[in-house]
Structures are given as C-alpha cells and as structure tokens.
Records
---
Amino acid sequence: MPKVTLISVKGNSYICSGFLSIGVYVHGTSAILIDSGGDESCAKDVSNGLEQAGYVVTAIINTHCHPDHCGGNAYFQKKYPDIRIYATHDEQRFIEDTDLAPRCFCGQAQPFSGLLNKYIAPQKSSTVTNVIAPYQDQIIMVGDVSFKVITLPGHTPGSIGIITPDNVLYTGDAIFGEQTFAKHYMLFYTHIGNTLASLKKLTELKIDAFALYHGGVVENLESLAQQHIGRVLETKNTIVAFLQKQSLSIDQLTQKIMQFHNIPNNMVSFVLTQTTVRAYLAQLELEKAIVLGVQDGMLLASIS
C-alpha cells in the first residue's frame, strides 16, 4: 500500500488517502479516527502515516461493525493500550465477538467455512470502551473534543454518522460514492424503511462537507441520495415483478436477483444478497404488497 497521507476536508477534519476514506480529526498531537480500516496491514499504514505527520491515535469512533470499518481496531488497541473505542450497542457486539457475524448469516448455527474471512467479520476482536446510547442523535465528548452523533440506521441497525466541530459529517456506509454505487447494484441493507429515512435525513442536514467512507469528500449529497432512493424503489419493483410471475422461495428470489445483476457466485456475495433480499421482503410485507407463508416445507413470497 502507498504511503498514507492526510487529505484536508475542513479545519482539523481530514481523511486518509487510499481506497477507504478513514476519517481523522486532529487535536493538538492527538488523532481521533472515524473508523479504522479493514485489517492490521491497513491500520499499520495509517498509524505510520499519522506518526510521520506528528500525531498519535488516541480514540476511534466506529460508525458501524462491518470489518472494513473496524478491522484495524485490534492493531490500534494493542499499540495504544489506553485508546478509547466508541460504538453503539448494536454494533459493539459484532466488534467484540468475531464469531457473531458469520453465525448470523447461518441462523446462529455453526458458520460455513466460506464465511470465516475478513469480508464478513474482523479477524481480531477489540474492546469497545465507550458505548454510545442507541437510537438517538446526541453529543459525545472524546477527550475534550465534542462530536455530534447522527443516527443513520438501515445499512446496519446501529449505524451512525459523526459530525466534527468543523461541521464535517463522516457518513460511514449510510451512503456510497458514485464509483461504489455504479459497481454494486445490490447495496447491502438490513432495513429498507430505515434506509430511506436515513437517506432523506442526510439531505436535510446543514453540513459544510461530507466524507464518504467509500467515495471520499463531497459538498452536496442531494443528487447522490436521490440516486440511492431511486435504486431502492427500483429494486422493490423488480422483486414485485418477479413475484407477479410466480411465488418464490427466498433462495429462488436470491438466485434471480444474483443472475439479473450478474452478482459473483461466491459465498460472501450470496449471503449479503440474501440478507438484503430478506430486508426488501420484510418491507414489502409491511406495505402489504406481498404475503409470506410456508408451503410444502418452503417459505414462499407471493403477491398479496
């Protein structure tokens, strides 16, 4: 990986150069990270880059529990034993228990070997030292720096965004940059209603700059958020169109979605797609557009 450098967003708010836009807020000689990268190698590069710039990492705020956001926690916690790590309660469990995410994709049973990798869960656990109260916007103090926590559920239940004193919002995965949006048609969501509400919320905030973990810095999210909303609504319509032809099991519907969008045939892609399909079905059931029922030993989705 090339040398990591700091890219200025505004004031003391930065992102790290590289594939992932890890957030950095500097205060004196301290660096407060918003997410920590995907693994030890990434974390080490970030740490070295910050040290060369004269900063020491004193805290990490995790926007959510996915391994590309918290996979570097363990490295920083080992290197800096006094470091503070912040996350919401829902996300804490997955950050601290690396077996939990693979089990979730297997109905809490022993996970398949194809799910035991850094794309599903961090490879090393870390301890969340400061649990953020769930489901409410609030102010948290990290040392003597005040950050605003914005709840942005949908991608995961406890997802948050972080607004720095410079009025820069680090969005986590509540919204994706143009390149990621174009590359991955079936974006990962666990709750469709919350996703739409969070996207709308992002457009209503008075923010000077947005830092997207997958996409870098943008000044205005209106167009991008509307693209995301349009994608969600289009996916709902696609699922309904499939079900208008015939009732389908979740496996059959997952297969059709993967084939329709040329999603790679591997275990990780399958479970991520199927989880997202389940989220869409739950929303469509809530809207009374479909019914779910068990027939001949299969859970089938049908048009209501």
Note: The chain has two domains: 6-220, 231-303.
---
Amino acid sequence: MAREREGRVLRSIMRSGGSLVVSLPRSWVEAIGLGEGDYVMVEIAGSSLIISPTRVERESEVRLRFESDTRSLVDKIVAAYLMGYDSIRVIFPQQMKEALESELFYLKERLMGLEIVESAESSMLLRMVIDPLELKPSEVLRRMWRLSDDMLRYSFSPSDGVGLEVSGLLEKIEDDVDRLYFYMVRILRKSLANPALAALLGLSNVEILDYRLAAYFLENIADRAFEVSGLISGGRASENALHANKISEILLENHKLAMEAFLNRRLDVIPQMKKNLEVLTKLLTPPRLMVEQLRIRDAVLGIADMQYDIANLIIPRLT
C-alpha cells in the first residue's frame, strides 16, 4: 500500500523469501532514470535510510555570461561557488579574455578548491577539485580555530606585530581564514541540498546550522584580532592601561574552551568561560580610556562574546 502526502510516500514492508523489501516510488525511479538491474546505494543515517543512485552524479554545471562589467561577473562566480556548483563555465567576448583571465586567476586563490581547467578564446571552465569527504567541516573548523588562535596570540604582541604586518603574515592568515569560511559555507549548503552527503559527513540539519554559525564567529574573531593588532602595533594605545597580557591570556583560554565545548560537547567548560568573561569586562572598564583604547575594548569584548556564543551552540544539541 502506498500513500503520498506533501512529497512523502508511505510504503508497507513486504516479505520476499527471507528478506523484507520496500518498493521504490515510480515517480522517483522515472525522474532518476533507474531500471531493472540497476543498483542503488543505501546509507544508514541514524534511524533513517538514504537511497541514492550508485552511478556518478551528473556534474552540476552553471553557465555565466559576461553582460556588463567584470565585477558583476566575479560576484556571480562567487555566488555559484557558494551555492555548491561543481563546474562554472564563463562565457565572454574574445576581447575580454586577457582582463578576465587575470581576474579569475586572482579569484581562484580566494575560493578554496576552485581551479581553471579549460581556457578557450571566449570561454573558461572553473571546476571544484576538492572532494567534500576529504575535507570535512570538522577539519575546516579546526583549521579556522588554529588560525584565529594565532591571530589572537599576535594581537597583543606589538613588538612582533610591526614585523608581522610588514611581512604580510597577518594578512595572509586572515585571507586563509576567509578562504576556509567560504569553503565551509559551500559544503554546508551542499549538505542541506543533498541529504546523502550530509549523512556521509555525519551531520544533522541542526549541526549544519551550528557549524555555519561557528565558522561565522571564527571568521569575525580573526577580523577583530587583526583590528586589535593594528591599533596596538601602531603605538596608538597603551598596553599597560588595558592590562594587555592578562587580556590576551583570557582570550586565548576562552578560545580553546570554546572549541572544546563545540567539538567535544564539553558543557562543563561554559561556567569557566563565563567567569573569564566577567573578569575581562572588569579589566576593560578603567576610569578613563582614549579613543583608540575604546576601540580595542569594543573589539576585545566582541571577540569574547563570540567565543562564548560558539560554546553555547552545544546546548540545543545536548537537550
């Protein structure tokens, strides 16, 4: 017996020999193009099963045309990347090739895993070369955490900070965090659109949302750490007035505890983070602060709040 309601099909379980079987919905079989003798992949996802064709999934390709200006085309490519397209074919007038090629070489450095695999007189093909199963969200998040941790470590080190800014190391670290963040958005969107991928990655819908928020917070923490480093390294604010060493120590401890909570479900670390946040707030409220010190205070408290938010993402999953 089959009953269909709101896109769902209710099937009865039947016995065939020594096995229990369920028939596949005809509309789905026809849409996928399956026939007798074909195989399907059955994946276990908790208490559910996900059925997918075994043949290689047809590559998701989008075609983008140059219409008015390079900037608009680049924005469309970024959007296609974030939406999870595996291939992006760019079509343009022949006279635009040199300018566009230069722009796309720069763009692929910003978008992790995107490579130019084909170049013709009036078109170029960009393709995603990273398998999402080889670089999972948990690994991406750990890398984002490590990079943002490095930036926090540098942010209250003005003597080293000047050299770091001159060498461009901080900018490169921040760029890496941005690249990882874009990749994270892409893989999580693909997981929402493809339940089979989500199952293989071991992510529920709630966890997909949590990873998205955690990555967002880490990307913003890196941005604010860079801002603090610039203010202190420029010599425009007194370290002593803000207890820089103590503040740095608290931020680094809470950064570690935040990821312990999120990745290892350590609910017990949250009270310590809250105490650290209270100490930090007191340190950052002296009687008088210069404008630059006020900017540092706002950035530091923003970092601390986001660390606390990352840790608290675990609470809905535990309840």
Note: Residues 2-53 form a domain with the Pemi-like Protein 1; Chain: D fold (CATH 2.10.260.10).
---
Amino acid sequence: MNIGFNLNYFTGSVLYNEPLKNHLTIGVGGPARVLLLPKCTQDITKTIVLCNENSIPCTVIGNGTNVIAPSDGFDGVVIKIANEISEYSFLDEKRIHVEAGMSLPKLIKVLLKNDCTGYSFLTGIPGTIGGCTAMNAGTVYGCIASLLSMVEYYDGKSITQINGSQIDEYFSYRSSLFLKNKYVVTSVILELQKGDIEEEKQKNQKYLQKRKFSQPLYTKNAGCFWKNTNNQSTGALIEQLGLKGKKNGDAKISERHGNFIVNTRNATFEEIIQLAESVEAEVFNQTGIILEREIQLISINDKSI
C-alpha cells in the first residue's frame, strides 16, 4: 500500500488497513491506512518528518485507553507507542527514567519492587507513561504532573527536554501543551519518595478495590468520557440526573459509573457520539453546565506535528 514514502528505515511492525478497534480499549474504530508499532524513538521521529514532507495525516496514540476513532477509520498513519519503547532505569533511589511506551500498571509493579512510595493515587490507571503524561492523568488524589522532574518530547523538529519549574507551565487539568500541540512525549523522569512501603501497598490495594467496585473495568470503554466541572464529579452529576443506564444501540452510560460510556456488544462510533451528545444536551438543559470531553478523537483532520 502506497503512503507516499518508503518504510525501509522502520524497525518495528507495520500493519496496513488495520482496524483501530483492535487497538482502542473501547473497541470502536475503522481501519488506519497504516498503523506503526515503533521499536525506537527514531522510528517515531523519522516517520513524523516523512509524513510532514508528504502531507500525510499522522497521529500518535499510547495504549488506546482514552481514545475513540470514527467508523470510517483514519486515512493516514497511526503511530502506537506501547510495549516496545518501555525501558527504564533508576538514576538514584528516588528518581526513575522511563520511556513513553511503558504501561502505568507495569511501572507501579517496578516501583513497589524497589520500595518507592508516593504514587499510589495513579494505581489502576491503564495507560502508558507517554499517554498519561500528555493527558496529565490522575484522580481526585493527584495527577502525574506532580511527580515529574523531566519530560522529553519531540516537537516535529527536535527532541527537547523540560525540567523542574518549567514543568508546571506545561500542564493543566487533564491536559497539557504536549496534547494541545500534538508534541510526542518520548520519556520522563519521575521523582518519588522512600517511605513506608507497606503503607503504599495498602493504599494501592484500597484504590484498586475502589476502582473495581465503582468503575466498569470489565467492559469495553475508554475511561472517563468527560472532565469534571467546577470541582464537581461529572459521574455523580449524570447519576443525579437519572442518566445512568441510558442507551443508544449498543452504547450505554455505565450503570456503575455515570462518566463511562461502555460498548456493550458492537457499538458504533456514531452510536457512542449520539449518546454523548444526548447526555451533554440533557445536562445543559437541566443544569446549564457545558460538559467538556476528556476522551480524545482520532480525526482525519489531525495533521502530523
């Protein structure tokens, strides 16, 4: 399949006409013209340069946990950074350098094994380090930006680092300049603590249990669909308005957590978006609150950075 340039430089896997639903946790999305699974940072940067030079739409995803794609897919290149680009190394007792493709659950196991503490609020978040950093993932107890002492990213021209006090300027609630500008996070340094490891393990278990009983973990979903608004839980708001369980085809507002849209069988992109729009309209009509989506859309309007 011709994409306008030769992929002979690429060291990872190349998949043509690959259904995106196979790579997104919500299980929805048509084919990408090309889906790339890179093995090194150069695979990523070289591809983006070539996409730019050839005017090929290009987008980058992590583990596909907070992403949805249209039924007609993506007529361009999707780069999925996961698994292969996941090396880590401890710089000292409290600092760890981690590549973008490592999953957060795997990292937490590494941190527990090395008696690190101070990150339990991230327990149960399923994304990659790169994706979680770009989204500034977190919970009501904290967000990943609070642990970062360095972020390395590719801006379309060069690989750059931000450190220390610079970091705060790049992040906001469930967003970052990386996400807004489509910069690609390639690695980070996390600054942790050396505290009571047994207490950290107990906190991890507490947060995992809370997720197990409050979120639809064993259904196809993309995590929280909307951001919280005005320090109010969107899930609680949707529940108060009696919208839990609302359906459109095979798409449904989870009966366990109002901020999750679940794919009960073979939901389509259109069913999910129509359901989301219906909920957004109902919330606005009853409360005047405009819900802002947390979920990211893979769109043909995406251009490489």
Note: The mean pLDDT is 95.
